[in-house]
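hey m, so remember when u said the tokens were messed up on ur end? i reran from scratch. heres the input so u can diff it against urs
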Amino acid sequence: MAVLIVAPRLQFFDNNGDPLANGKIYTYEAGTDTPKATYTNAAGNISNANPVILDSAGRASIWGTGSYKIVVKTSADVT
């Protein structure tokens, strides 16, 4: 069973406060560079890609278990 990381439908913004359209969310084991799975739903039975690609509004459903390191990048891979 997965538990919610922060919210069922996260939204990310760029430095100007605009939605981070097509941004990328990389998820890792906390404190490492080892990729860690996230899921599209609370049941944890459908995995997200890693990175999770945000929609045009900068949103994605990201659920997971335990601790994570999360790296947010633009669509051009700029952190």
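this time it looks ok to me. The chain has no helices and seven strands. if urs says something different then somethings off w ur setup not the seq
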